Amino acid sequence: MFATEIPGLAPVAGPALAEVAGVTVHDTGFDGRSDVVVFEAERARPDVLRTGLTEDVFVEVGRTLRADGDNPAWIAGRIWRPERVQRALSVWAGLVRPLGAAMTFRVVARVLHERTFLRTDLRRQLTEVIRRDRPRWRFADPAQVEVWIVEYAPGRLVAGLRLSDATMRQRDGRSVEREGALRPTVARAMVRLAGAAEGTLLDPCAGAGTILAEARAVGWSVQGRDIDPGAVAAARANVPDAAVHLGDARKLDLPDGTVAACVSNLPFGRRYRVEGDPATWLRTVLAELARVTRTGGRVVLLAPDLPRAVVPAPLRLRDRYPIRLLGTKTTIWGYDRA
């Protein structure tokens, strides 16, 4: 099997997959748009789809190397072998829907370079191979069966049937949407970096409540604050059992050392500006997060940059994961509260 992730999240998603019973992670890479984790599962079970960190999950139909035959026709024939495809289709049918004799399909292809052939050539060749093997299948977009072939490392290609859909990535959507809301997979990665769900997790810039929802899903008691009344209303609608209140992250209404973790997507960019000098705002907010987080707790933040000068002494950098969201570079920062 293999899974695609937000660029930069493979180092977090790989260990999460490896914790699933019967799963062994073999390799990671990048296909030009997403991180890729290649893994083996002893048997097909829904829990490989439920780590909360993967954008999409696939059951493998084959893999090959450019070095063995660097042309799209050879690669397509090498990847799509009927006996392997039949095994993959059995897994797909068990996790997605029963197979019919006549199905619709489409091919998605990603390659790291197009010096010897175009991505569209590979997609066309694989489409033709599938048509010959499955004469009752017809092309459609959208389709019942999605076949992806990706070059996840230079010269290494893997192909598979997509088991997941948008509901896995977006958790069936939020009751109230807000522009710029965090992707649930990124929120789950940040929550994972906060450690075991023991105590209260606070998001001081709660927005639509995505971090609160992901934290609640893995057992945290959650609280949220936001300076925007619209965000507070959205978070309350999306996470009804969370304690979300109007509040300023620079002056939190909590005693010292009362939460086990602070996890937040800090405002940045043109849409979400902060009052006054950004460095002063960051310094004040981080000092406040250090104050309300108990010793031994974690502070996990999403921000393009957190200069050392704005980080208070009690926060010790533990994790740093540069990621890319919708083409924008940012970073997940993880701190231990010393």
Describe the protein in words.
This protein has 338 residues and is α/β, with parallel strands linked by helices. It has two domains: 2-168, VC0802-like (2-Layer Sandwich), CATH 3.30.2130.30; 171-337, Rossmann fold. It has helices at residues 10-18, 72-79, 82-95, 119-133, 166-170, 184-193, 210-217, 229-238, 278-292, and strands at residues 2-5, 23-30, 35-41, 56-65, 104-110, 138-139, 145-153, 156-162, 200-203, 221-226, 243-246, 259-265, 293-303, 315-325, 328-337. The chain has an eight-stranded mixed β-sheet. It has a seven-stranded mixed β-sheet with strand order 11-10-9-12-13-15-14. Helix 2 packs across helix 4 and helix 6 (184-193) packs across helix 7. The radius of gyration is 22 Å and the shape is elongated. The chain starts with a strand and ends with a strand.
Strand count? 15
* Largest beta sheet: strand ordering: 2-3-1-4-8-7-5-6
CATH architecture of the largest domain: 2-Layer Sandwich
Which quaternary structure do these chains form?
single chain
H/E order of the elements? EHEEEHHEHEEEHHEHEHEEHEEE
CATH topology of the largest domain: VC0802-like
Give the overall shape, derived from the CA principal axes.
elongated
Secondary structure layout plus pairing:
Layout: E1 2-5, H1 10-18, E2 23-30, E3 35-41, E4 56-65, H2 72-79, H3 82-95, E5 104-110, H4 119-133, E6 138-139, E7 145-153, E8 156-162, H5 166-170, H6 184-193, E9 200-203, H7 210-217, E10 221-226, H8 229-238, E11 243-246, E12 259-265, H9 278-292, E13 293-303, E14 315-325, E15 328-337
Parallel strand pairs: 5-6, 5-7, 9-10, 9-12, 10-11, 12-13
Antiparallel strand pairs: 1-3, 1-4, 2-3, 4-8, 7-8, 13-15, 14-15
Helix pairs in contact: 2-4, 6-7
